Amino acid sequence: MLCSLASGLALLAGATSGRAEEPVLQTEQSDTVKLAPWSAHTILVVDAVYQHNKDGRTYIVDGDKGRLLGMVQAAYNANVVMTADDASKFYVGETTWERGNRGERNDLLAEYDSSTLRIIADEKLPSRALVTPKRNDLAISADGSYVYVYQMSPSNAVEVVDTKTHKVAQTVDIPGCALAYSWGNSGFSSLCADGTLANVSLGADGKSSMTHTAAFFEPDHDGIFEQSPSVTKDGKAWFISYTGKVYEAKLGADSTVAKPWSLQEGAGLKAAPDSSKPFEVTWRPGGWQMAALHKSTHELYVLMHKGTFWTHKDGGTEVWVYDTETHKRLRRMPLPVASPMVGVTQDDKPLMFATDEDTGDFFILDPKTGKQLRKMKALGGSLIFTLAPGEG
To answer: How much is the mean pLDDT over the chain?
Structure first.
């Protein structure tokens, strides 16, 4: 018995001595990968994640490959703007709480480097509007020197943030008005409850002045989509109403608004009635980001669906494309599914974007035919708008 035990121990010792040395684990080294230079088809996609929207985020997407390149947090009801000249930076207006869902509230404006996705500056704001993330809750001047943050505490106002000093330069009260449509390097306009536009000019002395247009729409009968497209550099805007009227505006210190034209009449149809005939079914604009503009070709992309007057939040089953100079429809394109969002890049070979609100699928489409080029399955929970270089 002792002999057998000794033999077993000897065999065990031999096996142990022949075993390879345990590898020495190396300390993990962290690094930062830089993104390739942005192309005209590198876009931001904003995901509000309504199911748990304090976890909102912004995706960086390669539209040519249908590939997710990166992501940054964009907390509760966030909004995003990008520098128009070179897409080198983008800004996220967001809100957090010290203990997740309670504690001290922090309203923030984060500035990101587009190539590394590192935060350059993280400015704490006096406040920002905690409403559903409408695109024009946040705006940026043409030269990128100011970011405009719409807020409602205690009343309607816009925080003007100097992007060089990363400080709030001034707070502009805009009683009875909302949102910010930037024009030029030192001004913005806001939509007002009385149907007018408020126009704010920022003086070199740090003071602001305001003018109002005459009322150009009737909020009680035919409201305006706040997400209507505009161009900051030259101050042009196309305010689209629930019935499909398009009010072309030249924004500035004294904004002017032209007589409206009809999306339906531009397509050879009868104009849609307003809230006085709320149950008439016809083609109407609708959705969350319900229109996009391709600046160089003067083409306006509008999500359209069949419905009654109060279906302005319904996604579009088709995209109708208009020439903003002739006011005529150029083409209509059915979508794979009804989409609450449409986007377009700004180059001479653009891409068009749509989404499936139920699945979070993201569609990359040919803007001339509507043909699906690529699909990114389940990209996000609540994709609400895209932002492409040179847009805005």
So the answer is: 93
